[in-house]
Amino acid sequence: MRTALVIGTGLIGTSAALALVQRGVTVHLADHDPQQARTAAALGAGTDAAPEGPVDVAIVAAPPAHVAGVLADAMRRGAARGYLDVASVKGGPRRELEALGLDLGGYIGTHPMSGREKSGPLAATADLFEGRPWVLTPTRDTDTEVLNLALELVSHCRAVPVVMDADAHDRAVALVSHMPHLVSSMVAARLEHAEEAAVRLCGQGIRDVTRIAASDPRMWIDILSANPGPVADLLSDVAADLDETVRALRALQSSDDAERRKGGTGIEDVLRRGNAGQVRVPGKHGSAPRAYETVVVLIDDQPGQLARIFADAGRAGVNIEDVRIEHATGQQAGLVQLMVEPKAAAVLTEALRDRGWALRQ
C-alpha cells in the first residue's frame, strides 16, 4: 500500500489516516464537509487535494446509512484498486451494494473495535486502534488482493485482525456495544432531573456505567438505525430481567417471610448471572480475566503524582496490571486503585508506605 483515499474525516477516518501517514503512505482526504477534510490535513493526516489517479485503497469512514452510497460512487469512478469501509454495521451495507448490482470482488467490509466519546478529526489519534480488534468480513467473492490490503491497513494501525461473517458481526456488536450504549444512556437519563444533593454523591460506579452515554446522539442514531433488530432483541431480554428484578424487589417489601425469601432468591439470581457474565469479559491483552489485588493510594490533585507512584512501583519491582482513579467530589484529591498480581500486593504496599504515600483499605 503506497496510496490511500480516506472518505470521511471524523474520528475513525482521521485516526486511520494519521496511522497510515506515519507508515509512509500518501493519504488523500475527502469529506462531504471540505472544512473537516482541511482540518484533518492540518493535523498531519494527509492532503485534502484529490488524487491524480486511482489509489491503492479507498477507505470509506461514513455513517452506516451512507456507506453504500459513498462506496458505490467511489467504485463507479474507479477511485481505487480496493475498497473497504469501517462502519460499525456490516450486513446492511453489503446487501445494499449487492442490490445496486456492483461487482463486490474489490470490496471488503471492516470494523475497527475502537472509539472515543468525542468525535471529529480533532479527537483523532494515530494510536487509536493499537492492540484493538479490527473485524474483517470477507466473502467467497472477495479478491485476495483486497483482503491483503485490508490486512496491511490493520497492521499499519497496529490493530488485531479478526475474521467474522458480516451478520454474526452485527449480532456481536449489538451485544457488546450497541445495547450497552442504550442501557448506559437510560441510566444516565435518571440523573437529568435528580436532586443536586443526590448527584453530588456520584462515585466511580455511576461514572463507569454512564461514561459512554456522553457520545454524540446523532452518530448513535445512525448506528442504531442500521442494526435495530439485534439490538431490540437484546433489549427485550434485558426488559424481561428488569421486570423480574422489579417483582423481586417488591417482594422484599412484603410482610410475608416466604415472599421475602422468594424476592431475595430472585435478586441473588440476577446478581450471580451478572458475575458469570462479567468474568467472560477478556482481560489484559485479550486473555482470560485474572484475579488481581488492589492497592488503594490517596493522592493530591497535583502534576506528577501518578508518575511518582508508577516510578515507586517500578523501583519496587512491581508491574501495575491496571489502574483506576476515583475522584473525590468537591475535593482536590482522589483515590488511585492499582491492580497487581496477588503476590506483589504486599511488596507494593510496603514500598509505597516507606515512600510516604497514604494508603487506604
Per-chain topology:
Blueprint: E1 3-7, H1 11-22, E2 26-30, H2 34-42, E3 55-60, H3 64-77, E4 80-85, H4 91-99, E5 107-112, E6 133-137, H5 144-156, E7 160-163, H6 166-189, H7 196-199, H8 204-210, H9 217-225, H10 228-252, H11 257-278, E8 293-300, H12 305-315, E9 322-327, E10 333-340, H13 342-354, E11 358-360
Parallel strand pairs: 1-2, 1-3, 3-4, 4-5, 6-7
Antiparallel strand pairs: 5-6, 8-10, 8-11, 9-10
Helix pairs in contact: 3-4, 6-10, 10-11
Give a short overview.
Belongs to the prephenate/arogenate dehydrogenase family. It comes from Streptomyces lucensis JCM 4490. By secondary structure, the protein is an alpha/beta fold.
How would you sum up this structure, described in words?
The chain has 361 residues and is of the alpha/beta class. Among the domains are: 162 residues, Rossmann fold (3-Layer(aba) Sandwich), CATH 3.40.50; 68 residues, VC0802-like (2-Layer Sandwich). Helices cover 48% and strands 17% of the residues. It has 13 helices and eleven strands. The strands form two sheets. The chain has a seven-stranded mixed β-sheet, sandwiched between helices. β3, α3 and β4 form a beta-alpha-beta unit. α3 crosses α4, α6 crosses α10 and α10 runs antiparallel to α11. The protein is globular. The chain starts with a strand and ends with a strand. The mean pLDDT is 91.
